[in-house]
Write a structure and sequence with these properties.
transmembrane, mainly alpha, about 80% helix, membrane, transmembrane helix, Asparagine synthase, 2 helices
Amino acid sequence: MREGLIPAVLGTVVSASGASLLRKSKYKLVGTGVLGFGLAHMVLGAIDLIEHR
């Protein structure tokens, strides 16, 4: 399995859950934080995928 694939996929799942939390008006701040963590995982996973071709 390629290095960086797991963080990229995990980041996608976390970003999707953060985006779903943004729709609920009560949890907008939590949704923003979860979405940010997910996007960070996606970026770091993509960097690992590119770096370790």
